[in-house]
Amino acid sequence: MRKLFDKNRVIEMAWEDRTTFDAIKDQYGISEPDVITLMRKNLKRNSFKLWRERVSGRKTKHRASSQTKTPRFKSYNQK
Question: pTM of the entire structure?
Fold first, then answer.
């Protein structure tokens, strides 16, 4: 069963350059293709296009290819 999530928080995390898709999956159980679908449905067309250009091929959006292997800070307010 999928965890309940705050759509706005997932969108915010997806916009952040340093937040990986793996972190979003760990926290909310949403895979990268699901995040892309969520972004496509909730952003304006041009905003989505700009976001896709930014995250496509970006090493920091994927934990396996990210240079930092240390865990990221997580606020106590996050689930």
Answer: 0.70
